[in-house]
Amino acid sequence: MTAPRSFEELVAEADAAPTEGWDFSWFDGRATEARPSWGYQRSMGERMAKATAALDVQTGGGEVLAGVPRRPPLCVATEAWPPNVVKATALLHPLGTVVVAAPEEPPFPFADNAFDLVVSRHPVKPYFDEVARVLRPGGTYFAQHVGPASAFEVVEYFLGPQHRQGRDPDTERAQAQEAGLEIVDLHTERLRMEFYDIGAVVHFLRKVIWMVPDFTVAKYLHRLKELHEQITAEGPFVAHSSRTLFEARKPG
């Protein structure tokens, strides 16, 4: 029987693992997260198959878009973080998708009415005025947003009690409507997360940097050791992510 790995081994491995892109296969066997009932990649792929020109905003490493069976004749993705731009370019260019290095903040580097579909998975912030501008009349915005108080059990373990609202779907609804978009579908689900070892927690916080913005292993070493002991004694550390399905249409 293999001996349990030490705290030092688990943390050193996680602290050295690459974090670019949105490939979460590193967590296999070490952490789990339930998926929303709507199946974002499948649902997005169904819309891609019917589109003629599509934009994927903040594509990350391009993994989600690359998994779509059929993309429209014109398909463009944007990404701001240089390591992700490199990864997305290598993955998406062979599939006929152009990757544009562009900041997350507006304006989008595209003409008015350029796309009939704009998609985004977990945008840092949705800029609905820009979405409305680049959508053609009758076009669709289809996205999966991070919902309110997502993974706050992890956040609060390290930072203490926080204001738990965070991303507010009702506020985003109002912003989209103010930009001239009509809401087609909007609902939120909370989803169980389990971390089976302390390395998974370290890698998660290094990869999803806005959860604990000042996170380093050295700074939070004491809390990490305490959490390692808790997981060893009691089993997985449980948290809950929050995801919002957001679909809107530009009148036309």
From TrEMBL:
<dbReference type="Pfam" id="PF08241">
    <property type="entry name" value="Methyltransf_11"/>
</dbReference>
<keyword id="KW-0489">Methyltransferase</keyword>
<keyword id="KW-0808">Transferase</keyword>
<dbReference type="GO" id="GO:0008757">
    <property type="term" value="F:S-adenosylmethionine-dependent methyltransferase activity"/>
</dbReference>
<feature type="domain" description="Methyltransferase type 11">
    <location>
        <begin position="55"/>
        <end position="142"/>
    </location>
</feature>
<dbReference type="InterPro" id="IPR029063">
    <property type="entry name" value="SAM-dependent_MTases_sf"/>
</dbReference>
<dbReference type="InterPro" id="IPR052939">
    <property type="entry name" value="23S_rRNA_MeTrnsfrase_RlmA"/>
</dbReference>
<dbReference type="InterPro" id="IPR013216">
    <property type="entry name" value="Methyltransf_11"/>
</dbReference>
<dbReference type="GO" id="GO:0032259">
    <property type="term" value="P:methylation"/>
</dbReference>
<protein>
    <submittedName>
        <fullName>Methyltransferase family protein</fullName>
    </submittedName>
</protein>
